[in-house]
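Dear Dr. H.,

I hope your travels went smoothly. While you were away I took the liberty of generating a structure for the chain from your last submission, since the lab meeting agenda had it listed for discussion. I wanted you to have the full record in hand beforehand rather than looking at slides cold. The sequence, exactly as received, is reproduced here:
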Amino acid sequence: MSGPLFPLWQIDPDEYRAVCTYLRLTPQPRLYDHLSRYLADAPRLFPDPSGFSRYLAKARLTRFRIGRLDPMTKLFLPGHPLRHVLNGVIALHECDPLGYRELAVGSRFGAGVGALGAVLRFGVNLAFSLPWLGWQWAGFAANVPFNTEADLGGKRALITGVGRGLGRDLMLRCLESGAEVIGIVRNRASREKLQGELPAHARVTLLVADLSTPGALAAALIEAQIPPNSVAIAILSAAIKHDGKSVLSSAELRETFQVNFFAAAELADWLCGPHEIPPSPKADAPASPSPSTARAALASSSGPASQRGLSSTTRVVLISSMGRWHGMHFSAGYNASKAALSIWGESLDMELRQRSDRRFSVTVVEPGIFPSGMSRQTPLTRMLFASRDKIAGRILAGALAGRRAIRPPRWFALLTWGICLIGRDYRYRLLARAKPHAER
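The corresponding predicted structure, in token form, is as follows:
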């Protein structure tokens, strides 16, 4: 496992060592693996923190922060994730010979002396922690107007590209928020790998669909018998980028547009298409139904939405890119495909609003660059990288709030628009330096 699946609950190795230092225990990789598996089930077993408790849980754990949070959560926030972390670490080390000896050291002078010392330490810690807690509350209160949390409890999320990158982070965010996830991966190997990493009880159904094949996504959803109107939020995150390939490379260009644009349009057609049942296909018609046919068949076979407790509103989220505002050489039309997706998404929103169809909302997301398989690792890009997890949180919160455009982080959007205003010649020189090497 490369890192915590659920950062709100789980801790990474450095945080584990900080917890052990605070508890005066020796870190043990074997026990950390057990702790990670235990905490991976926390989103399913315990109530999701909210408000100020969630705000405190987002920051990384250091020895100082653990010392401040320990008495605060013990007195005021007993459901805070740190309580489960501390209890889990202590329980695991108690079952280990070395850990048991280290935990028993505090009681060697007798129960009375040990209890008195614990009370004194707690009191001193509390005196230092109260001002810190007040400062944290001030920061939380200042950001309340700008922070909205995703609440997907009992709802169904459909996400493409969950095998890695932003799609994976979006899936994990949805799981943390209580959603049931229908995740789309490209092949069976990706599905098996991801299933092995997820907790056994994770509410995830993984479907295999190669989005470079027209109609493959709708066909997979039909086979899995997923009713379109059971989806509360559909996030079209999957994308490919043929870096180093000319925009004149027809095969790569077609695949880029199929995955980045047409697959999204096909899925949106499956979600938002007409309810009418189409006529029976002719004998020489293709075997796989169109997205509109699939939607009509599933909607007619599953009965009225009000009788099934299905979602009354579906959020359609299209993951585009800030690169859609300018061209880019030797990328097989990646930026062009994202430009098409953004404009098409705006057009879809216009059509839905014109026919007063309140069953759907369309959000176009144009994020800046973040660590992924499509981003080159250079000193410049590492400086510009945004946190992928934070972008995922912004996307979910914004989409559920009904925002039509999200461009995280804002400073990168302003930087991109500034580059667009300087003119094509200057833009060419700048981007040619940023991406100097390419294969024809």
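Two observations you may find useful: The chain is about 55% helix and 10% strand. Strands lie at 156-160, 180-185, 204-208, 233-236, 314-319, 360-365, 405-406.

With kind regards,
E. W.
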